[in-house]
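Page header: ASSEMBLY MODEL / two components / 666 residues total.
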Amino acid sequence: MPLQTLPREKTTPRFTVLVLLLSLLAGLCAVGIVFLTYGVNPFFAIYEIFRSSFGSAFGFKETLTKAIPLIFIGSGLALAYKAKFWNIGAESQLLWGAIFATWIGLNWGPHLPGPVIIPLMFLGGFIGGALWGIIPAVFKVKFGINEVISTLMLNYVAAEFVKYLVVGPWKGATKYGYPYTDDLPDHAILKLMEYSRISIPLLIFSVLVALTLCFVVYRTRFGYEVRVIGENSEAGKYAGIDFFKTTVLMMAISGGVAGLAGVGELTAIHKHLSYPETISAGYGFTAIIVAWLGRLNPGFAILSGLFFAGIIVGGDAIQMSMGLPAATVNVFNGLILVFLIMGDFLLSHRIVYKRRAK
Amino acid sequence: MLDVITSILVRTIVAGTPLLLGTLGEVVTERAGILNLGVEGMMSLGAVTGFIVTFTTGNPWLGMIAAILAGALISILHAFVTISLRANQVVSGLALTMLGLGLSGLWGKPYIGRPLLIKMTPIAIPGLSEIPVIGKVLFFQDAYFYLSVILGLIVWFVLKYTKVGITVRSVGENPKAAETLGINVTLVKYSCVMIGGAFAGMAGAHLSTAYSKSWIEGMTSGRGWIVIALTIFALWEPSKAFLGAYIFGGIFVIQYVLQPLGISPNLLAMLPYLTTLAVLLFYGMSSKGKRKMSAPATLGEPYIRGSR
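Prediction written out in full:
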């Protein structure tokens, strides 16, 4: 064969960005083909997606709103994926954040002022997400249980638990037939920017968390250990890394920041706990691609989180205007992820044209 | 009382059938060294394809064939990305799940709330179906059950006793040695991934055209992931896949048996997932060494031709 692939030693940042953009473009083309099978003009659909998410002030505000949970979760997943710990459970870590925060807000909220209760809810949410994240970490290191399966199973368990809470013991006294808890007290709810659903402090908080995690991964001893476990776990053993401690701490952080996303959704958007699909809207899964598009750098999760928030907002918009089902966003996510990992091949291999020797 | 037990067993077999089909496929795929986490997506696509074809043609057999083809076709994507491009198998499998769930939601939307007029009906095996209890449970089921048992026996026999089986296993255990012996490693891996996809597609069609007779989004509800856990539970052996599939089928049924006792349906719905965790935990505590030995040696690792 005249085409040969050879391993590529290093890549320039410019080439990396170029390949990522090409992968995204190819992914969008593939999405276009899917639109065609549905009888929708692909160019118009893709144009509409970006126009409604980044092309208007109203749309961009929604995009920022949805970027917040994606930045939180995406940066936490990037940390876990650095260690090749495939945490697919952010969806339920988010839910546990919301559960803990709801309990704190409803029980302590009436007795404490806003500046105390809000930080307490975020702290509680972090702990809730962290505890749920630690379970698969212990399972993996102590018992060798595949974390993809355990985190997924825990997703289903947590979702059923939230449903149980909101139709059962936590069902709000003021909510008549609806599956909601009571609303949080007014002072436990974040102030939003006018004519939007954005809480500016929350947005800043998410960006700070991502930047902090970026610092942790690349500039601390712990971050170094996480990367060593991911790149070469054998070497990690000889270097004396405590796998158990590092993995548990890493998953506590990864789950914890997903829990923060849950508190954010609760206190800024919904104001009460309700069905899991309402609280999360699949952020835990979309954030997997956010982390991947950000090349597993928690800092880049800010940009890729913003991009995928745009896809969600645009996807919602064309769903309504063109009558597409909610699953459209899944098609988007799946195809873009496939093309991103295909792009990785170009980043790690050179393709050379070789004339056959005579 | 006997009637109740019979009915529970019948439903256990029905609920276990898609799990068995899916697990058999994943066993074949993983035996060749490829981890395909996309079972949930392939199953969902099989369910929607099987449903649409059955709905439009009125023939559930055509639905089954279409679902098998759909599962095999979409699995090529995973094969290409992980075998030819040597990409990360975990992430590719996740992408396949998202894509499969997305496409099935997209294509299936017009069919929501429109039940099938004809579904796969139980076939009585003459004579045997008259036996009390056992007859109803084992010899009065739909075609998917009989096919899954036959296919299970075939997969078991082929993997264990034939040259094809040795070829597949050697590709998963030691692809370099296999290549030296003149085996086309890439071809074997592609084929095994596609067989896995075909099985997952068929399992999906069972859900939408035999188990129930309607399509709803998310109807696979984690069965694809349970299949992956069952593959580990079965120690990559088709014979043990039977046991695992029917145990889990029973757990799906027990939810409905326990519901009249006044336990919250939401808490009962956790059972299959909690059981999966418990089983893996039990295995992890008792047989870490055995599991390590049974897993195909190069599972999840990309293979580079001619590398040393």
